[in-house]
Amino acid sequence: MAMLRCLCVAAVVRCPLRLSRPCPLPSPLLLGLLSRQVREAAGSAGAECGSVLKTPKGTRDHHPAQMALRERLFGTVVACFKRHGAAAIDTPLLELRETLMEKYGDNSKLIYELQDQGGELLALRYDLTVPFARYLAMNKITNIKRYHIAKVYRRDNPAMTRGRYREFYQCDFDIAGEYDPMIPDAECLKIVHEILSELQIGDFLIKVNDRRILNGMFAVCGIPESKLVTMCSTLDKLDKMPWEEVRSEMVGEKGLSPEAADRIGEYVQLHGEHGGIQPLPSLLLCCTPYECSCSPPCQAGWERCVLGRDGGAQSSTRGN
């Protein structure tokens, strides 16, 4: 690689910067010669190392055209964040291992772990959320509206053709503190809508979830509380895997009964604006902080409690 660097320097030195007259451009013949020498130098360096020059698995280089597009995209996103009064922060790429571990359930195995010369146990950040929580606690900050755009790292099995990388950017916007109910949620939705509209990507759909609905679904499907975190981790893969593969992981790797997995499957595959989501209001009534008035109780089967099958009750009343 030393030869490669020398060639690049030589190409610059041969065309010195002069204020008195324009710098002549190298001839096509010279450019072709330099290009061939650079390729040969790169090939020699790779041969000396016994391998082909390439980026690590799950990573990639970004060319000038791609960087220009990224800068335009980031500029649009940051401008929107600033319009909404957010301030930028930055946190180290490295965190203490103890800060990150046990924060991501089963996905903790995807954290890159390191050890420095002094023996300190470190890790590459997995996302921007846990470092933000550490930042708030360490600096005793109770109210902040912040954004953070930075690279994160996952020791995952990459599928680059499907957009799964080991190194990629995350773009976070968070409102931390005490505010009127639903106001921060509404602002976050507005920000997403503004950004996607300004980027002119065409029609888009914003999906909103609530962890309480997910916990309620698990409750009526008979999932024990001890398995909630690991089931959430598996269910989160539905954006990347078909339901059949997710179900196989639930049963084969997580030890869930096939019957419980099938009940979950009926819920997660519900779609539609009307008939497809009719069971959900009843589901909400059957979940914490509500109590189920069905007889037998909803834990005996979601078909009885929610869908009214097998002659069971179809509605529940709110508990006191």
Describe this structure in words.
Residues 58-262 form the Aminoacyl-transfer RNA synthetases class-II family profile domain. This is Aminoacyl-transfer RNA synthetases class-II family profile domain-containing protein. InterPro entries: aa-tRNA-synth_II (IPR006195), aa-tRNA-synth_II/BPL/LPL (IPR045864), HisRS-like_core (IPR041715). Residues 1-22 form the signal peptide. Belongs to the class-II aminoacyl-tRNA synthetase family. This protein is mostly helical and 320 residues long. It folds into three domains: 2-49; 64-198, Bira Bifunctional Protein, Domain 2 (BirA Bifunctional Protein, domain 2, 2-Layer Sandwich), CATH 3.30.930; 211-311, no CATH class. Helix content is 43%, strand content 10%. It is built from twelve helices and six strands. The strands form two sheets. It has a three-stranded mixed β-sheet with strand order 1-5-6, covered by helices on one side. Strands 2-4-3 form a three-stranded antiparallel β-sheet. α1 (2-13) runs antiparallel to α2, α3 runs antiparallel to α6 (183-198) and α9 runs antiparallel to α10. The longest helix is centred in the N-terminal third of the chain and has 22 residues, at 28-49. It is globular. It starts with a helix and ends in a 13-residue tail after the last helix.
